[in-house]
What we know:
Helix content: 55-70%
CATH architecture: Up-down Bundle
Largest sheet: none
Shape: globular
Structural class: mainly alpha
CATH superfamily: Amino acid/polyamine transporter I
Strand content: under 5%
Number of helices: 18
Radius of gyration: 21 Å
CATH class: Mainly Alpha
Number of strands: 0
CATH topology: Amino acid/polyamine transporter I
Amino acid sequence: xxxxxxxxxxxxxxxxxxxxxxxxxxxxxxxxxxxxxxxxxxxxxxxxxxxxxxxxxxxxxxxxxxxxxxxxxxxxxxxxxxxxxxxxxxxxxxxxxxxxxxxxxxxxxxxxxxxxxxxxxxxxxxxxxxxxxxxxxxxxxxxxxxxxxxxxxxxxxxxxxxxxxxxxxxxxxxxxxxxxxxxxxxxxxxxxxxxxxxxxxxxxxxxxxxxxxxxxxxxxxxxxxxxxxxxxxxxxxxxxxxxxxxxxxxxxxxxxxxxxxxxxxxxxxxxxxxxxxxxxxxxxxxxxxxxxxxxxxxxxxxxxxxxxxxxxxxxxxxxxxxxxxxxxxxxxxxxxxxxxxxxxxxxxxxxxxxxxxxxxxxxxxxxxxxxxxxxxxxxxxxxxxxxxxxxxxxxxxxxxxxxxxxxxxxxxxxxxxxxxxxxxxxxxxxxxxxxxxxxxxxxxxxxxxxxxxxxxxxxxxxxxxxxxxxxxxxxxx
Length: 477
């Protein structure tokens, strides 16, 4: 039986094709396009390999999107992967995705994006630090919650502010995303044009490896593949969010027609922007300089690239743009992610209060509050790259399960009306699932810390599952 709060009511059909594409673009374009090229440079030490990783990550994402569109069209309800996994595999799979999203996927995503917002704000207005022993103080020998405290507090402030905006209604939250996303896309196109025509960069930078190339891992068995997967793991953070459109399925107009189009058009636009922007960065800045940026605390690659040919004034301007971009992406992630816990609570798999829809604002306000609190806690738990690598690893476990569902639903529901079918079936979904398996194995071997923390946080959902079940929160199968 589905549990409904006494204060609940229907969600508003707000997103059409245009606003849906803007939503997915704003959900994806955030910190990655400005920052990840630096950490990728440390891993790959080759600009050509970095560009290859961006292209391949885009292609893999597109394979997932082409497959997801068929599932999303069949199940156009709020909750995204939670709904898909619940209906394809059963309540436990749906629950553990929802829990993992709460513990380390969407919440860590929000924390990481807000963190880069604060780092960029720090470039405009230096934020205070505690200094001294506070900076190195650890909790459980892993976390340094007081390091870079001013940046972390600014990130928390952003999460609280944008949660308050979304609390007052989807039109306010969605309208803010629309405005910011349009500004961001125009600005990124301007960066590409100016970087390639006015920066004084060199095409030779795109073919010159670092002074320390090749990386040590290249000498190992399957070294190139390990290096490529590691570089792509970093780039996948920038594509993270493509599955989010399913979280607002109940709020999309004409979902059977619009959901596939929103996903496909949105990813193609983003992929083109990412490849061109990162080519521009590496055209302007040699890879050894990019590696140096990665090793600088609060260093943001895009800021240093623009500083190189536009000076401090340009660096100030790009910092403001990143502040705007990451604010917009944080807003979109908060808007979509809180719907997971709303959907879980409606099916009895989360705290009942999360199913509440505000009678005036027509949004799941209590779910928003729960999500914001945990996201703020995660801001203090790790560095930007630790958070992003962990969440990408966990997310790909569920990506594989969701896309494998295409095969199951074709067999289980052969006669269901499908206004869209996967292009290239069965090859396209099969390739995506195989890639997910390779990425997961490579991460466990080469980045056991991030993989282990992600698996631990996901497994923590087990006692909560039985707690909900014991208290009759979970509907019987």
